[in-house]
């Protein structure tokens, strides 16, 4: 096992040019990269769904559906070159339609929770659809992860990409405004998966978007991620009440099981009696990322599997990341691996604005107005046994 830096100074020294060199642009596609489409099935209401496969020059492969933008598979080599799917998924389209978990999906209009299933905007209170106790979770029971998106391939200079588009009408899940959303998946020759969001509205509204992929760096169906290591570039988090709605406080991670400022096994403190761990039944917490500039691209987290050598580094323009250890999985769901999924079978790195921000004025705003564009980018960089690199300072 390699030694990793234990301090967080590197979060202020990202080489943005290195990370974003393969970002979306015009030009000729890499000849070795491929983009394929095949029929996947038909939804219960009769809509055709396709599955898309993006493969880069080294052979890393990402598959996703037009249904919910669900990322079904991410095939990544281990230190010996063996490819395994590190994304948890389900077996059929019917499973994605009916089973809980939001596996791999584009999550919105409002990712995470809104307390009491309501918020007030411009003096008007909007009553949403409660689907998590008395709260709204991930946009409601029939949100964007349950819609069929339009998929358009893109030409990019050093990889392969596609844009998924969807227009959510006024009043969808009781949210105000017609929302136009484009999400672009880009797979580069450098084993980077970039997810870029562009969103606009015709009426004042609130939004929060993420991707809800579950990772298991040892491979889908390989068992618990408890021994996999995690580092999160966050000095603080947003504590919640028993209903997992933030209290509005921003609290230090120091001295708590939520301190991942050094590489730590995910399971090392998973059974802690710390109240926040009891509320979440494990990790289900929003970390406040250390960001030198609002909206800038910064390092968020790294996960590492010592058995296979696989790493994933997460970078984002978002202010937070939700780490979730699949606490709701209890063996009742059979995954695409052919095994049942249980708690700690996977973890998420859901980059986001903070939960319940529309009801917490001290949190970064999630309001979007006509004439504005919400833009957000998250990057997952896959590698093996890679030390955190020394990087030059960010421009101020």
Task: Tell me briefly what this model is.
The protein is mainly beta and 396 residues long.
Terminal-residue CA separation: 35 Å
Integer average pLDDT: 91
Task: Give helix % range.
Answer: under 10%
Tally of separate helices:
3
Please render the helix and strand layout as text:
Blueprint: H1 16-20, E1 34-42, E2 48-55, E3 61-65, E4 71-77, E5 83-85, H2 93-98, E6 106-107, E7 113-114, E8 118-121, E9 124-127, E10 136-137, E11 150-154, E12 159-168, E13 179-188, E14 192-201, E15 205-206, E16 210-211, E17 214-215, E18 229-232, E19 234-237, E20 251-252, E21 264-265, H3 275-280, E22 284-289, E23 298-304, E24 310-316, E25 320-324, E26 330-334, E27 340-342, E28 347-352, E29 367-368, E30 374-384
Antiparallel strand pairs: 1-2, 2-3, 3-4, 4-5, 6-16, 7-10, 8-9, 11-12, 12-13, 13-14, 14-30, 15-29, 17-28, 18-21, 18-23, 19-20, 19-22, 22-25, 23-24, 24-30, 25-28, 26-27
Provide a descriptive summary of the structure in words:
The chain is mainly beta. The chain has a single domain (9-384), classed as Beta-galactosidase, Chain A, domain 5, CATH 2.70.98. The protein has helices at 16-20, 93-98, 275-280; strands at 34-42, 48-55, 61-65, 71-77, 83-85, 106-107, 113-114, 118-121, 124-127, 136-137, 150-154, 159-168, 179-188, 192-201, 205-206, 210-211, 214-215, 229-232, 234-237, 251-252, 264-265, 284-289, 298-304, 310-316, 320-324, 330-334, 340-342, 347-352, 367-368, 374-384. The protein has a nine-stranded antiparallel beta sheet, with no helix packed on it. A hairpin with a 4-residue loop joins strand 11 and strand 12 (159-168). The chain is globular.
């Amino acid at each position: 096992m390699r030694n990793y830096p234990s301090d967080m100074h590197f979060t202020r020294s990202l080489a943005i040019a290195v990370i974003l060199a393969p970002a979306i642009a015009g030009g000729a596609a890499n000849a070795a990269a491929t983009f394929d489409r095949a029929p996947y099935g038909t939804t219960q209401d009769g809509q055709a769904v396709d599955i898309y496969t993006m493969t880069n020059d080294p052979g890393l492969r990402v598959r996703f559906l037009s249904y919910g933008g669900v990322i079904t598979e991410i095939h990544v080599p281990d230190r010996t070159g063996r490819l395994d799917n590190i994304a948890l998924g389900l077996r059929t389209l019917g499973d994605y339609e009916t089973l809980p978990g939001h596996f791999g999906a584009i999550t919105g209009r409002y990712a995470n929770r809104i307390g009491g299933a309501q918020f007030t905007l411009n003096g008007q209170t909007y009553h949403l659809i409660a689907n998590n106790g008395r709260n709204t979770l991930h946009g409601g029971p029939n949100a964007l992860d349950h819609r069929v998106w339009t998929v358009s391939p893109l030409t990019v200079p050093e990889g392969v990409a596609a844009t998924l588009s969807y227009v959510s009408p006024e009043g969808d899940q009781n949210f105000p405004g017609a929302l136009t959303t484009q999400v672009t998946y880009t797979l580069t020759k450098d084993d980077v998966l970039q997810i870029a969001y562009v969103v606009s509205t015709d009426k004042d509204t609130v939004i929060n978007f993420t991707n809800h992929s579950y990772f298991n760096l040892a491979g889908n169906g390989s068992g618990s991620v408890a021994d996999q290591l995690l580092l999160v570039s966050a000095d603080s988090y947003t504590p919640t009440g028993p209903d997992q709605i933030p209290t509005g406080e921003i609290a230090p991670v120091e001295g708590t099981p939520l301190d991942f400022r050094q590489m730590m096994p995910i399971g090392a403190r998973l059974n802690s009696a710390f109240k926040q761990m009891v509320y979440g039944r494990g990790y289900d917490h929003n970390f406040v990322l250390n960001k030198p500039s609002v909206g800038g691209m910064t390092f968020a987290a790294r996960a590492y599997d010592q058995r296979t050598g696989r790493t994933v580094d997460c970078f984002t323009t978002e202010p937070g990341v939700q780490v979730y250890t699949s606490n709701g999985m209890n063996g009742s769901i059979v995954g695409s691996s052919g095994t049942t999924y249980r708690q700690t079978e996977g973890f998420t790195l859901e980059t986001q604005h903070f939960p319940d921000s529309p009801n917490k004025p001290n949190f970064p705003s999630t309001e979007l107005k006509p004439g504005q564009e919400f833009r957000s980018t998250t990057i997952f960089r896959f590698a093996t046994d890679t030390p955190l690199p020394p990087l030059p300072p960010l421009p101020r």
